[in-house]
């Protein structure tokens, strides 16, 4: 029970003289070197402290430090929340401010050091401490533990040494378990072969700086198949090694302490040995056991800042002998300096790049330099000895173990009148410290081989000092435990730590935020196309990123997770076994698979069985011959097959009623000698993924079988589209309190037409967190963790109330707070210098509004995630007035992703690009449609009259047709060819009017327009030459009545158009044919090549000869004439047998293959020659051509084609038909 232990209300003995009067403690001088020390008489569990100012005065302290000690020496500063060092004090003389310590302090002595006080008064204090007496601890050198029913070891120890064995036990099989200190860290080690084993296995490592001569609590506890190692307040959970579970352990030797003073509190003290199966009891049977711990007094001094220094008097000797120990995290800093009395030089001993260096300077010139040691910024104690005499100077680190350097200077090196440690008073410019300041601890100082009494220094009886903390070492290991998340590497200096997030997949000051998207859906809406991507399903949560394939070629965006065998594989039964077991290992871990299936709208996996006299499931009433395991973990037994319902013990044909034998529910159960198969999709997410197959009927004579389990495929991200619409400023959603004490990240998307509103708010007693739209161009992230409100703002250059989606990402951690809006640079605010504070909230979390119902948000909020967990806004919105689930209207934000005249189509969750009016295809209408024509290949495209279009529009793709009343043309095409001359395009009408695009014999582009049969053609030539060079070129022609523009670029693809009523000059040219690549053919709103390649069955096209799709129109593709690689989409295997005709395509004996992951990308390169495109148009308006010269067109003859004009024109057979031939 906590009770008042000690109270100070009147002057009492302290570290400095007291003023006269009553009512509290007030030192005569108010500075930071005063303290009040309380001796509680015995070790006490201190749980709280309370302060007041001095009674009836203007004297009180506004902040202070608390120190604790068992001996009155070696003080340790108490820190709240592991880092916060100071306590806020009083604001007047009468109010009581009490603080409950988060972790009780166990000590006999308490010291309060005022930091700041009332500027209109002095330091004044009344103090109360609360707690209860702490039971005495027992010390031992060694003891032996025997069996008991408890499975825990708990003890406390303290030591001055940083290495040694704390506990050790040996058992059967040569296995041993040890708790050892190594460089101040506690290691849990497993050895095989006794203590002489050279390479023990480290099960856990915890704690740091445990050699500080303060009590530390250690516990080892078994929890199932795991061990929990606890050091002080931190616990690490480790898996019990499998080999340890196979051995019994009987302690055969005492648990030993090596050079360590240990105090063990016998409270539930039981040891856990290697097997962790046999109960063990405590028996102190040997060794020296005492009930007190004698320990040496070691007074340390801390140099915390830039004004810190220690001045000591020098020695009168003609030689120099200075020694000390130091520990620090900094790579650089001045350790010691003194003047040379005879030479007039200065000796500087300092750290640089974590090495110890010595320089002797005189008149700005270095007379001597030495260096020793390395990596001296590791936080460990390192000894330094500097000696000189008889013409020899020696610098040794760690008693020469860390390095030693010698020199023979030509001048004597002796200590002057004074030495400065850690810094130097800047009295003059020539005495200024040229090196970095030292931040760290020192102890065991000696001058002329005589120890320095630092207590006399503290009492101002020896030397001088400034801003030192004497009789304590204030070093903090900011990387133990590491605040760097997700495997980030922690490094530190004296004041800060840094996280290296390289190769972790995370970013930020503490490696908290994932750099990857959470689904393929999210990648798509960033403008990505199909490919392999890292997916982080829980964002900043504990699940690691995983590599998956995102297939964005279909209407749905599929996430594909591979396993070790997605091929069709023949079953090879093992002799003597009635069943054949196949296990599938997935590229994703268990928690990743579970998260993927949980957040996806739909998942499926193909399950196929091909059989000949190999039965599958028998009958619904009988015992199945085969089954599979699926679902979480190792999976649950499933007795249905792909395409059927769970628990039905049927296959797809049984559900559809079309099995080969009506008496059975699977084709294979008919037990026929012909090949059959049962295939289908598993879509029940609780049964996915398929983990194992057990095939039973594979041993009979004549039985043959093959199986295939496809990759796991999922689409739809329920988290990404989870949204709510707030239609009133007073409406909001509420959720449980947000817990983000030390690390919190919040991300969401919003769209609105309002200029302000609160997105999110959560309150505590004093703390709060809030994100709001503070103006139409600004987002504000504000919070308070007990040290005053902090705000982070991001200003946008464009209005945010444009009813388009905008993304907000806010993060607060122990180092900084950051806010990011869309792709703008992040705004950051550093955390307070003196530690971090827990965010303590207790109200409900309000979304879209506040508890006061003021400044509410009107608009949509989507994909709201807090620390990687998505809040289900839609479910909560269904039962909340003023809020509607979902939020339509995505094309305003994502419509720009649809390229090349693609049209954005709204969907309930997202959007889709309609490429019907585009010559391109793909998820964003970004993939060119290309082909290479061989000799004899042609595509005939027929245009129908308007009344025929109306009559047949229900059966044909509407995107193939357009209005045929032409007042102008928009023609674009790309080509790649080595042929010159060559006719690229020819369009003619019934009235012998035409448009021709060609390459003449000079490799120039030429455009001919004839819009009046009674006049000669108008000719325009480009200045661009060398177009028949095998490179990609693009031509665009735009005509509106009598205005024509032509644009030529030198990086795209080719097309050729001719007519059956050719101009005689052009007929001979067309007869040469065309050799090259054609791509992205577009005439007004019609894409004939795309129709022929992608919609040959539903488009008015006639294809003659082989037409093979190619990527020759891609800028990245190689010259298609170099080689020919053809992929036939005929459904045949390499052996020429169609699937299902006789037997399945399988690997006769499946072995390791170069095919990794089972993904096959079809890339088609085809060499094609010959092209003729014929188009006849019946112009409805003859007035499209005015009797004027075509603007920008030069009329002249064309002598570039050496062909005669004897080709006869063909007669038009049907004036109502318009034909377009490729």
Please provide a written account of the structure:
Disulfide bonds join 860-887. Pfam families: F5_F8_type_C, Laminin_G_2. Residues 511-563 form the Fibrinogen C-terminal domain. It is a single-pass type I membrane protein. InterPro entries: ConA-like_dom_sf (IPR013320), EGF (IPR000742), FA58C (IPR000421), Fibrinogen-like_C (IPR036056), Fibrinogen_a/b/g_C_dom (IPR002181), Galactose-bd-like_sf (IPR008979), Laminin_G (IPR001791), Neurexin-related_CASP (IPR050372). It is a single chain. The chain has 1222 residues and is mainly beta. The chain folds into seven domains: 3-133, Galactose-binding domain-like (Jelly Rolls), CATH 2.60.120; 151-241 and 255-272, Jelly Rolls; 307-426 and 435-470, Sandwich (Jelly Rolls); 557-715, Jelly Rolls; 722-887, Jelly Rolls, CATH 2.60.120; 889-920, no CATH class; 929-944 and 966-1109, Jelly Rolls. 5% of the residues lie in helices and 39% in strands. The protein has nine helices and 84 strands. Strands 22, 24, 29, 30, 31, 33, 34 and 36 form an eight-stranded antiparallel sheet that branches. A hairpin with a 2-residue loop joins strand 16 (226-231) and strand 17. Mean pLDDT is 77; it is low at 9-21, 137-149, 245-287, 945-965, 1052-1062 and 1118-1222.
